[in-house]
Input
Amino acid sequence: MTKLWNYLKQKSKTLHELAKEFPNKTYRELEKYRNADRNEEAQRIYIQQENEELKADQGKEIDYHRYWKKRAQEAETETILIKGIGMNSPEMKAAKQKIEELQHELDRIKKENNKLYNKIANLTDPVNTLKKARESGL
Output
């Protein structure tokens, strides 16, 4: 506030100067003119200071934007590297091979299980059992 007050003192005219400039005006009118001039100047300075603060804040926002954009790019790069290295690493290749082996073994066991199920079903089927007993001579 003192900065503004000092500026207004330097910039605004005194009542004596205003009286010389407008000799036919009264003291009260000159005072109103001086106050209006001071208010206008104060408002202009206030707006100018706000604009400077906004510009400074916008500069910071741009820096934040650049910061987060850079961080996102770094994270994407790391992810790409991890995926690339991870999929081609010896551990990943060994794991893929083990998965394939286990899948083949699972398929083989499923087929075997299905064959055994069919055998049990045929042996426990009463119609089939009666037919085999007649064929064997019982």
About this structure: The chain has five helices and no strands. The chain has two domains: 1-88, 90-138. The two ends are 121 Å apart (CA to CA).
